[in-house]
């Protein structure tokens, strides 16, 4: 250690200084004595004679030796000092490096902690928003979510239809609403209890989510009804989807109390938005949902366990103002030929209604 070696050198330096003091005094006396004093002159002469004597040569050699030792000692002390300074500098750099590493780690920790806090806040907000927009029993979306999402979708669908050249059919520009109404659901609750009814609803919601795309919406619309918003598709192929949903629900079994396995059916009605391709602004998306609901009632009227749809008849200038209509009104429009009804049992003529 530099401090230990330095402490060992201190006695040596003191001893050399003590030995060199008389000789330095003699040399200084001989060099600085005034020439005006007779006594000093005599003393100087005596000192000169003494210096010329054989002993004086030995003293000169001792001074030279001590001088060399002092120079060597100074050099060694300087080396020790530089080594000590270098050691202190390395210790300081190491401490500074440790401090920088600590500060860097603290900064990383702060950033990570801040990001984690932000993510937790965002996740809580999303969870709150999701819980506020979903049905707690089935996990399906609720009406509130429809009100938040569908208006912008409907505006986009109308723009696509209006921007298409006259006479062309726009693909993937329709929003089709399917109303799925469980048949005899009230009897299920009365006979097997509300718990059995809840299990049926959960199973139906699970089946509907499995049938549609991730971009579509499965909505708990009422006590025994689900709404599917089939977004940005082609209305001409939705009947196949409706039949697939009907078949899935018909094959569904729900275990109720006592181990009994309950089978159910559903009546499905659907309607496309825009209701009329030739007049995209003729009926709003809420009106299209109302038409889908009426179509589900039409399916029940025909015996349940099927699907029905109402669509505007092809032709320019067709009156499709169907706001706040009833099933009787739709029947009248079918009789007039301005609305066409189709179902899983085939196309319907006005006389059949």
Could you walk me through the main structural features you see in this protein, from its secondary elements to its overall organization?
It is built from nine helices and nine strands. The radius of gyration is 52 Å and the shape is elongated.
Number of helices: 9
Order of helices and strands: HHHHEHHEEHEEEHEHEE
Q: Per DSSP, what share of the residues sits in E-state strands of 2 or more residues?
A: 5-15%
Q: What overall form do the CA principal axes indicate?
A: elongated
The average pLDDT score comes to 81
Largest sheet: 7 strands, mixed
Rounded to the nearest angstrom, the distance between the terminal CA atoms is 110 Å
User: Got a strand count?
Assistant: 9
Outline the low-pLDDT stretches.
2-6, 21-48, 349-353
Radius of gyration: 52 Å
Structural class: alpha+beta
Strand order of the largest sheet: 2-3-1-6-7-8-9
User: Portion of residues in helices?
Assistant: 55-70%
